[in-house]
Design a protein that fits this description.
2 domains, 1 helix, six-stranded antiparallel β-barrel, Elongation Factor Tu (Ef-tu), domain 3, six-stranded mixed sheet, 12 strands, SH3 type barrels, single chain, mainly beta
Length: 174
């Protein structure tokens, strides 16, 4: 399985007990959706390695306590500590309306109600305090804040997002 075909679920943050159980911090607002998984992919080096889950439960609401097959000792649990967890993209709950996953809208056209065609979304930068759409406009990068108030419509069929950005924002880049 390739990382490109998966989504980041969380990270193993602690050992739990002495029999190889681990606690994972999930990157989700709804951890209960993932408490009955059969398996998970763990990033070990450059590979995603599948691990079957023998038993799991929510621990203190945000953490997933897991007993993984073939992880039976404290030392084996230590060897996967701080590893990232992934699941195939098809495990993501479907979103509708103007909700979207960042990976889903890459390649969508962006239009602005006042400006018109802005360009194609090449990435979403969420490493800043405010997530930003990175849009390619004829070779120039345009950064637009990902703000619910700016989004007028997400059209999955046409693969486009219609925005209402503050006056002059797009022109700053062009």
């Amino acid at each position: 399985m390739r990382k490109e075909d998966c989504f980041y679920l969380g990270k193993i943050v602690k050992k739990y007990g002495f029999k190889g159980e681990v606690l994972a911090k999930l990157d989700t607002d709804e951890p209960e959706l993932y408490k009955n998984l059969e398996s998970v992919f763990i990033a070990l080096g450059n590979d995603l390695v599948p691990f079957f889950i023998e038993k799991s439960s929510l621990h203190k609401s945000q953490l997933l306590r897991m007993r993984l097959e073939d992880v039976n000792t404290e030392a084996e649990a230590e060897s996967i500590l701080r590893s990232e967890l992934y699941l195939p993209l098809e495990f993501l709950p479907k979103l509708s309306g103007d909700q979207f996953y960042f990976h889903e809208i890459i390649g969508f056209k962006m239009k602005d109600v006042a400006y018109g065609d802005v360009g194609v979304i090449t990435a979403v930068n969420d490493s800043t305090a405010q997530a930003l759409f990175e849009v390619d406009h004829d070779g120039k990068q345009v950064l637009i804040p990902l703000n619910d108030e700016f989004i007028e419509k997400v059209d999955r069929d046409k693969k486009e997002i219609v925005m209402k950005t503050p006056e002059g924002l797009i022109e700053l880049y062009l």
